[in-house]
Specification:
Pathway: Metabolic intermediate biosynthesis; chorismate biosynthesis; chorismate from D-erythrose 4-phosphate and phosphoenolpyruvate: step 3/7. The chain is α/β, with parallel strands linked by helices. The chain has one domain: 3-Layer(aba) Sandwich (Rossmann fold), CATH 3.40.50. It has five helices and five strands. Bound molecules: ligand CA2.
Length: 177
């Protein structure tokens, strides 16, 4: 069967990249690979199309801009992939922004932050995400987009949080007699 084609009403995801990731492909290829940011964005767009979604990819070196974009994602997107780069390890502002929006977010890192310097092992934002993918290079963004689609599908038919279960005593299953 052919994959779903993106339409004007396809779910939109944001992919946000933080400081210095505009330098991808120019330095430190042993850590961050040879792909530049444009290639990474193209890979996200191609993956999104295969999944029947649309994606908006943005990069900023500025913490406040990333905060504004997380707020915008909360209004306009169904999910968020975030590589906050160095702000991952320091930013209460990004953590508060993620906590403020009701949006499934996945933290992504190109490198395996747990195999690097100890200061990279701590993430300020991880508690406000549904999960973290680190160490798979650009593939990590595709894994995150795929996981967001699965999450959307899983929650699409789910009752709102706190709603009684259809099989709970106050809502007996009609077939139970
Ligand atoms: O592994 C990742 O994706 C990181 O988020 C990258 C951040 C780093 O601070 C995090 O600990 C892990 C750094 C991004 C810097 O990107 C550059 C790319 C090319 C050349 C120099 C820096």
């Amino acid at each position: 069967m052919s994959p779903p084609q993106p339409t004007a009403t396809s779910p939109r995801f944001f992919v946000l990249n933080g400081p210095n990731l505009n330098l991808l492909g120019t330095r430190e290829p042993s850590v961050y690979g040879h792909d530049d940011l444009a290639a990474l964005d193209a890979r996200c767009h191609a993956c999104a199309e295969r999944l029947g979604m649309t994606v908006e990819c943005r990069q900023s070196n500025h913490e406040g801009v990333l905060v504004d974009w997380i707020h915008e994602a909360g209004r306009r997107a169904a999910g968020l992939v975030l590589n906050a780069a160095a702000y991952t390890h320091t930013s209460v502002a990004l953590r508060d922004a993620l906590a403020a929006v009701d949006l499934p977010a996945i933290e992504v890192h190109l490198s395996n932050i747990h195999a690097r310097e100890p200061f990279r092992h701590r993430s300020m934002i991880a508690p406000c995400t549904i999960g973290t993918i680190a160490g798979f290079g650009p593939l990590g963004y595709e894994l995150a987009l795929t996981a967001l689609v699965e999450r959307l599908q899983a929650t699409a038919g789910a009752p709102p949080a706190g709603a009684p279960s259809p099989r709970s005593p106050s809502h007996p299953n009609p077939s139970d007699g």
